Automatic annotation (TrEMBL):
This is Beta-glucuronidase. Homotetramer. Residues 1-22 form the signal peptide. Gene3D superfamilies: Galactose-binding domain-like, Glycosidases, Immunoglobulins. Inhibited by L-aspartic acid. GO terms for biological process: carbohydrate metabolic process; glucuronoside catabolic process.
């Protein structure tokens, strides 16, 4: 029972129900307010990997029924964190199957006593498949890492023990042909080489399949009659900003909703009554990207109240527009050039576990380098990261976990139905972030295969039906002539590794080949193009002149050759460049990776290689050319470089 039985069952049900169902309920980020409390129950949890041959002993023996320590040996496990790099045990690092987490928490008595209080348990994300119990009673099941899930646990708590609450979460990292990302389990049957029952997990993506509870676990309350979801869309005309809102209220038959929008200084600039409407903001302060305006990242505060003050939820709102022409990407009707990075959620020890020091350090590094954008390669990042981007004006291409879709069997209806569900979960979670300007539905799928056309048509059109205000793309590395999905996307995003995977060592070919790449794509589709990945591995501290592969000099030479072409093509239809990668990151062990992927311009510990200084100079120069830099930054750019 390596594979969670319910994975394929759920996906199958979704497929049978058809591709156009939508998710129940909203997924507002838990915040405190006069009517809501939040209690973070992250920290140290008890942990046990199910090492039984079938990985199914935990279910057979019902480990959720009693304290985990009574079932066998448990160890400390921090949450949030991947479990893989926490111990000294390679069996835990490379574990495939079910692991069990458990924590006892106290729930405030008043939450339990007040029947008008909803008590919700929310897991920011757990990779990959999760089952959640409270006091031994099953409360939720969720497929997919990188996105939150939650359960109303008030009923269970009131029926069971009262204030003490034992939370058990079983998490399975097994990937199948129908999961996102896909993978396969391969049993090795040659008894002369492998012991009985030996298996490996195969994947088609280039990052370590970190697992565990990756984001905070929160308990929070709302009144029973509560604001369940809010959707805002923004636009403007002259100096008037327009914010259309749609509020969904649950638990009340006649919701009385009031919405007010306040400026930075607390001044109310617009208000309205009702669950939907449009707020008009005169002398609007638009949300501008970092380095594009004197006063970037302006956020209004939208307070939604239900029935007087019964429930109150406050949402930051940035007013901005996004449009695409055949050659440009426009933010607030002005051309925007993506000078940015691709990232990973990845760090020493914690793996993909959310970590504020790392988030703040990464934003400081991005701003230091003059980065105005990043792509959440290859999965949705923590909401706290998106909120930080909103506040700093860093633009985001928001990618779903559709990476490594290479096997033709992963283009079937079950996979498609799950992929659509993931897009629904992603849009539901991230739709209100001004920083998010585009959805990416996949990375380097085998888009030349015949089923890919139908698959991507469905994906792109469904994503547009969920959110018509943002362009949609997927990232391609395939030959343009054979691409089946490109006709459906708004922006062509191309990954290429000239002089690395093709013609290794021959940087002199980059100029010719990159020009051909751009001209071919634009010639065929007349859509703006982002170079969504390019780069070369460099082992920090390794040098050679003339440059050789894997040295810092080679990495900078590759970058310079690409940049020369970008500088020509950005006058035409190239609208952005995203280096692969912001930092070195961990991968599976293979003969092509030396303790991970070294294409970072920073080391995994966030120390700059030569490429970081090169990029920094370039990005500040580009920002300065736009003429929209704030005075301090223009001064800085002129005198620093
Ligand atoms: C790619 C992938 C990325 C890899 C990168 C590489 O095209 O999108 O996930 O890490 O190439 O370094 O090979």
């Amino acid at each position: 029972q390596l594979l969670p039985r319910s994975v394929s069952k759920c996906a199958l049900l979704a497929a049978i129900c058809g591709v156009c169902r939508s998710l129940q309920g909203g997924m507002l980020f838990p915040t405190e307010s006069p009517s809501r409390e939040v209690k973070d129950v992250s920290g140290l949890w008890r942990f046990r990997a199910d090492l039984s041959p079938e990985r199914n002993r935990g279910f057979e023996q019902q480990w959720y029924r009693s304290p985990l320590a009574q079932t066998g040996p448990v160890i400390d496990m921090p949450v949030p964190s991947s479990y893989n790099d926490i111990t000294q045990d390679a069996k835990i690092r490379d574990f495939i199957g079910w692991v069990w987490y458990e924590k006892d928490v106290w729930v405030p008595a008043r939450w339990i006593q007040d029947r008008g209080t909803r008590i919700v348990l929310r897991v920011g994300s757990a990779h990959y498949y999760s089952v959640l119990w409270v006091n031994g009673v099953k409360a939720a099941e969720h497929e997919g890492g990188h996105l939150p899930f939650e359960a109303d646990i008030g009923g269970v708590l009131r029926q069971t023990s009262g204030n003490q609450c034992r939370i058990t979460i079983a998490v399975n990292n097994t990937l199948t042909l129908e999961t996102l990302p896909p993978g396969t389990i391969q049993y090795m049957t040659d008894r002369s080489r492998y012991p009985a029952g030996y298996f490996v997990q195969n994947t088609n993506f280039d990052f370590f399949n970190y697992a565990g509870i990756h984001r905070p676990v929160l308990l929070y309350t709302t009144p029973t009659a509560h604001i369940d979801d809010i959707t805002v869309e923004t636009t403007f005309s002259d100096n008037i900003g327009l914010v259309s809102f749609n509020v969904s209220v649950l638990g009340s038959s006649k919701p009385a909703v009031k919405v007010t929008l306040s400026a930075h200084d607390g001044r109310c600039v617009a208000s309205a009554d009702g669950i939907r409407g449009v707020l008009k903001v005169t002398d609007v302060n638009l949300w501008w990207p970092y380095l594009m305006h004197e006063n970037p990242a302006y956020l209004y505060s939208m307070e939604v109240t239900e029935d007087g003050q019964t429930d109150v939820y406050t949402l930051p709102v940035g007013i901005r527009t996004v449009k695409v022409t055949s050659t440009q990407f426009l933010i607030n009707n002005k051309p925007f050039y993506f000078h940015g990075v691709n990232k990973h959620e990845d760090a020493d020890i914690r793996g993909k576990g959310f970590d504020w020091p790392l988030v703040v350090k990464d934003f400081n590094l991005m701003k230091w380098m003059g980065v105005n954008s990043f792509r959440t390669s290859h999965y949705p990042y923590a909401e706290e990261i998106l909120q930080t981007a909103d506040r700093h004006g860093i633009v985001i291409i928001d990618e779903c976990p559709g990476v490594g879709i290479k096997d033709i069997r992963s283009f079937g209806n079950v996979s498609l139905a799950h992929h659509l569900t993931v897009m629904e979960e992603l849009v539901r979670r991230d739709k209100n972030h001004p920083s998010v300007v585009m959805w990416s539905v996949a990375n380097e799928p085998a888009s030349e295969m015949p089923p890919a056309g139908f698959y991507f048509k469905e994906l792109v059109s469904h994503t547009k039906s969920l959110d018509s205000s943002r362009p949609v793309t997927y990232i391609t590395d395939s030959n343009y002539a054979r691409d089946q999905g490109a006709p459906y996307v708004d922006v062509i995003c191309v990954n290429s590794y000239l002089s690395w995977y093709h013609d290794p060592g021959h940087t002199e070919l980059i100029s010719l080949q990159l020009n051909t790449q751009f001209d071919d794509w634009f010639g065929k589709y007349q859509k703006p193009i982002i170079q969504s990945e390019y780069g070369a591995d460099a082992v920090s501290g390794l040098h050679s002149d003339p440059p050789m592969m894997f040295t810092e000099e080679y990495q900078t030479t590759v970058l310079q050759n690409y940049h020369n072409v970008f500088d020509q093509k950005r006058k035409e239809f190239v609208i952005g460049e995203l280096i692969w990668n912001f930092a070195d990151f961990m991968t599976a062990q293979t003969i092509t990776r030396v303790v991970g992927n070294k294409k970072g311009i920073l080391t995994r510990q966030r120390q700059p290689k030569a490429g970081a200084f090169l990029l920094r100079e370039r990005y500040w120069r580009i920002a300065n050319e736009t003429g929209a830099l704030p005075a301090w930054a223009r001064f800085f750019a002129l005198f620093t470089f």
